[in-house]
Amino acid sequence: MAASVKDVARHAGLSVGTVSNVLNRPDTVTDATRAKVMAAIDELGYVRNEAARQLRAGMSNCVGVIVLNSSNPFFNDVAAGAEAWGADANVSVLVGNSGEIVAREKAYLDLFEEQRVRGVLLSPVGQVTKRLQRMRRGGIAAVLVDRDVAGEFSSVSVDDRLGGRLAMQHLIDMGRRRIAFVGGPLSLGQVADRFAGAAEVAGEHSDVTLEFVATDRLTLAHGRVAGERLIARAATTRPDAVFAANDLLALGLLQAITTTRSLRVPDDIALIGYDDIDFAAGAAVPLSSIAQPRFELGRLAMDLLLKEAEDPSRAVERVVLQPFLVARASTGADAVTVA
Amino acid sequence: MAASVKDVARHAGLSVGTVSNVLNRPDTVTDATRAKVMAAIDELGYVRNEAARQLRAGMSNCVGVIVLNSSNPFFNDVAAGAEAWGADANVSVLVGNSGEIVAREKAYLDLFEEQRVRGVLLSPVGQVTKRLQRMRRGGIAAVLVDRDVAGEFSSVSVDDRLGGRLAMQHLIDMGRRRIAFVGGPLSLGQVADRFAGAAEVAGEHSDVTLEFVATDRLTLAHGRVAGERLIARAATTRPDAVFAANDLLALGLLQAITTTRSLRVPDDIALIGYDDIDFAAGAAVPLSSIAQPRFELGRLAMDLLLKEAEDPSRAVERVVLQPFLVARASTGADAVTVA
DNA sequence: GCGCCTGGATGAAACGTTTCATTCCACACT
DNA sequence: AGTGTGGAATGAAACGTTTCATCCAGGCGC
User: Fold this and answer.
1) One fold for B5-48 and B61-157+294-320
2) Tens place of pLDDT for every residue, chain A, 339 residues?
3) Which regions of chain A does DSSP assign to beta strands (E)?
4) Residue closest to sugar C1' of D14 by CA
5) Which residues touch strand C (CB under 7 A)?
6) How far is CA B162 from the centre of its chain?
7) The pTM is what?
8) Three-class SS of residue B132?
9) CATH of range A61-157+294-320; options 3.40.50.300, 3.40.50.2300, 1.10.565.10, 3.10.20.30
10) B160-293+325-338 belongs to which CATH class?
């Protein structure tokens, strides 16, 4: 059906080797033949068969990316960063969404392995160390994104403990003392580290209390539920500030709080999130947040991955980026307060 | 490096044909040999080479999806619908983001064609008719999503004119008369159709005025800018309701309006968006919106695509889904859903 | 006991590239 | 004129599957 290099060769009155040379080493071929081949390609609508090319090369020019939750704009930007950098190196990016589900993570790893991708970029959810080691032995590199596994693999992450510290310190600076951390599960490294950072700072202030409010996942809906739980409390036991493990949770909390109209943000309760997604600035009470260089995160991870794929004996490298505070109205940082 | 079917065969003391049979037609093989092969596979860590498989089969088991803007949660859900349905049929989905840029659309089409995907699902941005026809001749099916091109191809879309009518009618029902449509560019079919629907309804009410407020793109930031323009107007010329072409715009508008605190939503100005993304319900003033069955949209499109890939002579089919109103606080309604 | 049948295993061919050792040819140099 | 020389084209091999015609060993009916 589709024209092959053989058809092109016949049509141009040349050999397949020559056609291949035109395609891959145009300088080794005479201008006249190049023109003839190009004409034949055009005429037949030839499109090279990537599968055959890959089979011959023994490796594809793709890398796989597995994100934790594609409905979180944060991961979108990380993937975009990786893709942009990959495009420069002429590798395509396949994006899979594990949804924090171990089985889906495994399914994508299977897929990528069958495709013989150059490497895999992922924020692991299951116990993948052994699997990744096996894949590495098979020539597939791996770089961890936004999470770190015992120095076995290269990784690019953001210092979540520091982020937790920044958020907590900010709330304290704004005069809050009874603080709740909302998030979960703690099995997610990000959540654990952010909480740990917050706890550290809390420990440095004798008049500050830090409470852990667990959620099952980090979504808008879960944030709403957690918000309703907080609202239902008596004023005396209610926190005067909330540090949410990410912005989706924080925005859910915000919605629960503002719709009931029983509390005001930030007057009655301050709120800070994490990730600084675009919707954070756009919320009706602009949300304070801990920003991460997410595009950069993806870009650096891809860079490390390509280097490692190039030279598998390369030493493991662990890059840690710095988060930073973006203070907005939801913590009273602006003069603006909205009922 | 990686073990091949040949290695497995040797290791199991059988032939490659038999190994292949174990993998692809397990019933034609005796229990004992199956066990032997499985053991060998396990021991060698064999993973089948998808490229070779594809080469032999002449076609991959992937389909490509090209979305207009991956930072709009709407497209995420469309893609998720397509992916879910594809998974049932054992096809993987490659997602590309054109960002409404013709060159990137072309780049993804090239990639997909080289990969010999079964078909392509896309919301076209450039003039792709001829290209898609050529690809179809080469055995690659195409289905258009959320946009329709002159009956040449199958498509799944949502009736944007009706959606525009619904939004407009709702605003009128809520007592609004001076209405502004915010959106653009009109070269986007969705924007044009939604505005056309709104204009139709406006024409049916002699006391209603409809104004067009142009934006360059459909993003949060552009919504914020448009909002500031509206706020700056004198009360007498200011609209009492805004219909935004999508939710990103609407949320941007909302933020501009609420932070200046000069106007209240919905009392001074009602606001309705389009798409009903998750952040709409989660906004501090829950946003009324026109919902589209986006997951279904992706699902149906994938279904059509797979059918067409199966039987290329299949008649073109054009599915049009119905949007529906989700009324929330931003138009002064309680959370009511109307079909 | 002989031929036939059948379930199961076999091995070669083919898919479309790329690579590389080889061949070919024209031209310059001796 | 003969001999190198080097640039350009060639064609076969190989990549890892799947498929399919073939082959083989037993079991069965006669």
Assistant:
1) no
2) 689 999 999 999 999 999 999 999 999 999 999 999 999 999 999 999 999 999 999 989 999 999 999 889 999 999 999 999 999 999 999 999 998 889 999 999 999 999 999 999 999 988 899 999 999 999 999 999 988 776 789 999 999 999 999 999 999 999 999 999 999 999 888 999 999 999 999 999 999 999 999 999 999 889 999 999 999 999 899 999 999 999 999 999 998 887 777 888 899 999 999 999 988 887 778 899 999 999 999 999 999 999 999 998 899 999 999 999 999 999 998 643 332
3) 62-67, 92-97, 119-122, 141-145, 154-158, 178-183, 209-214, 241-244, 270-275, 288-291, 318-321, 324-326
4) A56
5) A 2, 4-6, 16-17, 19-21, 23-24, 46, 48-49, 52-53, 55-57; B 14-18, 20-21, 28-30, 32-33, 52, 55-56, 58
6) 18
7) 0.90
8) helix
9) 3.40.50.2300
10) alpha beta
Measured CA distances, B155 to B36, B41, B149, B152, B176 (Å): 49, 43, 8, 9, 35
Work out the minimum CA distance from B140 to partner chain A, whole angstroms: 10
Tokens representing A246 are: 């990410």
For chain A, counts of helices (H) and of strands (E): 13, 12
Structure tokens given for A57: 């090369």
Residues from chain A contacting residue B114 (CB–CB below 8 Å)? 47-50
The residue lying closest to nucleotide C13, measuring its CA against C1', is B56
What CA–CA distances, in Å, run from A31 to A16, A34, A45, B181? Answer: 17, 5, 21, 58
